[in-house]
Design goal:
The chain is of the alpha+beta class and 138 residues long. Helices cover 24% and strands 34% of the residues. The chain has helices at 10-25, 111-123, 132-135, and strands at 2-4, 33-34, 37-40, 43-49, 59-67, 74-82, 88-96, 99-100, 104-105.
């Protein structure tokens, strides 16, 4: 994704990157569902580090990564870089719990969702991270 950036929109960019990755991960759907019931993934923790700078109007690129988990916790990492020279402007992460309707926690992915995710991770290793390269800088 490459657009005009202002630091006040960092988390809006993160959300757009996260939704695009989820849509790609689960096969073109914008939302994960279990038996027709949507799964919600509210943000529980965020971190951002502005590691460089950009001027208003600079064109930037957002890369979004996911850290595979043993549970249904979702952890995303983000890197915002200048299009012109690839310099990093910001690094960030968001963590999410998964809930189903009524606010109940989802403790285990349904088999079909888990399989889609596993296949996606193996076919798209470029979006998978263990977070170490990010965590040390956040």
């Amino acid at each position: 994704m490459a657009r005009v950036y202002h630091h006040s929109n960092t988390f809006v960019w993160f959300e757009a990157g996260r939704f695009a990755l989820i849509e790609k991960m689960i096969g073109g759907q914008p939302m994960i569902e279990v038996d027709g019931v949507p799964i919600f993934a509210p943000v529980t923790k965020t971190r951002v580090s502005f590691t460089g700078f950009a001027r208003f109007g600079d064109e930037l690129r957002l890369e979004t990564f996911i850290k595979p988990q043993e549970t249904t916790k979702l952890v995303f990492y983000y890197r915002l870089t200048k299009v012109v020279d690839g310099a990093t402007v910001a690094l960030g992460t968001t963590e999410h719990v998964t809930l189903v309707e009524g606010g109940r926690f989802l403790f285990r992915w349904p088999e079909a969702v888990g399989e889609k995710m596993k296949t996606f991770f193996s076919e798209n290793p470029g979006v998978v991270t263990d977070g170490r390269g990010f965590d040390a800088k956040l």
